[in-house]
Design brief:
The structure is a homodimer of 296-residue chains.
Chain A lengths: L2 H19 L8 H11 L6 H12 L4 H23 L8 E2 L2 E2 L1 H5 L1 H22 L7 H15 L4 H10 L7 H26 L4 H28 L2 H4 L5 H5 L4 H5 L1 H17 L9 H12 L3
Antiparallel strand pairs in A: 1-2
Helix pairs in contact in A: 1-4, 2-6, 3-4, 3-9, 3-15, 4-6, 4-9, 7-9, 8-9, 9-10, 10-14, 10-15, 14-15
């Protein structure tokens, strides 16, 4: 299969849907609407929404059914990035190659833009899902995934650990736990939500969850490597930021060679989890390979 | 009826439920868990959860059924207060008579505590609702109310307008719109969610919505009056903060006497909306009177 074409087509579809789903707002809310659009419509990879679509397809579903949930996942992701970049957290001036949200719109608007996106992610699933096709029970399962993956025991908890661990050296087990929360939980939710929408059975859900858990770990380790080695013009983020902030990373704990090997092992394990799936899971397999080969 | 006893009993029930529903967290997340508990379990009036309970009861429902939703409403409220107090927004050092969240736990933890609470509000409805009694359709309707009342076209949008209007003099119509978003939308959602849980018909929903809209306006006008006249030891907030921040308020626009009269007219209109309800709506009527007579 042609992964490049697959990613391109789905990215386009996701971005068109994102645009349509974002609030426009009246005159009084135009700054907030602009901040939300600026941060959500910038040049992201859209990995999470594409994973949801690919997972739905691997279970016999269609891209169109997965689109509202795919967008909700991207909204959650955009929300966490905006708050992550704030001066009080990572104090990052750049994101996706452009000034971060608070640098353009100010800190108060950035905080509220993040808040809006978090809530919008629930609203669009509740409002835009095609009710003729999506049962109430499926909507509830999807919302459960989304809420638990992003909150205290998910991305936000992971962010908290990330901050708390600055300038410390936690062991590999604790670092893995942080990675699973900070990055893994939303990747897992993306894959699981796609599968729920397509009506996957428990066996498939469990295999896809295993795929996602391995992928999430590989993804974050590769992010660390890109932070160290990447070029800012390609990654869109400042290079060496982790070290500057004294971030505790797996890369820092085990060194470059071992970290790269770990990422590769995780990708192989992710692909192995899909062995009972047919060719409809090829995009998921290719995405797993892409995750550690990417340059941004 | 004895309103004082009613408020006391329900406040107790809500606070016991809040305590049980808050995450405890592992060692790594103990600071975040503490910040969440500190802000949520401080001495609030619990007006929103009590409104949800009173509204459910007015429609023949029971307090117990409304409790998870009541807690979710308080979580949303606590989330907006934490973010509202941040240095980048209202820069408020005190809340409910104690140092605000970021003064105790630092800004990064306060941002993440607010985020966690926003997401937790959805999680507890999805996880704690008694599924034998609450249908999927009702859960979805409640979540719709919650998401739209708190997000871009709700509390967060209202906060944005509140900031944008600082040091300006918008007309009364625009100020009312801001009050409806900033304060009214979550009051409306509280009353509507209680009614949804009790299975209210469209006629009742519409009358209760009217009650809530009038109440929300009266509530925010009274808040402005308390900001001007209240004693910090009773309100738990710094006195005269609105003026210090150059906040645009209805009080500032129409003056003290007219603002007080407006609040009274709104309360009368709120009570009038309930005229087809029997004595089960007495708590709602009494709460409306209490809202403008309160000292905190």
């Amino acid at each position: 299969m042609d992964l490049k074409k697959y990613l391109f087509t789905n990215k386009k579809a996701v971005e068109t849907a994102l645009k349509a789903m974002l609030p426009k707002g009246s005159v009084e809310l135009s700054a907030l609407a602009s901040a939300i659009r600026y941060s959500t419509l910038s040049s992201g990879k859209r990995i999470r929404p594409i994973l949801a679509i690919a997972s739905a397809e691997a279970c016999g579903g269609a891209m169109k059914e997965a689109l509202p949930v795919a967008c909700a996942l991207e909204f959650i992701h955009a929300f966490t990035l905006i708050h992550d970049d704030l001066p009080a957290i990572d104090n990052s001036d750049k994101r996706r190659g452009r000034p971060s949200c608070h640098k353009i719109f100010g800190e108060s608007t950035a905080i509220l833009a993040g808040d809006s996106l978090a809530l919008l992610s629930f609203e669009i699933i509740l409002k835009n899902s095609d009710r003729r096709k999506l049962s109430d029970a499926k909507i509830i399962r999807v919302l459960e995934e989304l809420a638990s993956a992003s909150g205290f025991f998910g991305v936000i908890g992971g962010e908290m650990m990330d901050i708390a661990f600055e300038k410390t050296e936690p062991g590999l087990t604790v670092l893995k736990k942080m990675y699973m929360l900070k990055t893994g939980s939303l990747i897992r939710a993306s894959v699981r939500c796609g599968a729920i929408i397509a009506g996957a059975d428990e066996k498939k859900m469990s295999r896809l969850s295993s795929y996602a858990d391995h992928l999430g770990l590989a993804f974050q380790i590769t992010d660390d490597l890109l932070d160290l080695e990447g070029r800012s013009s390609v990654t869109g983020k400042p290079v060496g930021q982790d070290k500057g902030l004294g971030k505790a990373t797996i890369l820092g704990a085990v060194g470059l060679d071992k970290a790269m090997m770990m990422a590769e092992v995780e990708v192989e394990a992710a692909i192995e989890s899909l062995k009972s799936f047919g060719i409809t899971a090829d995009p998921l397999r290719e995405i797993a390979r892409f995750v550690i080969e990417r340059k941004m």
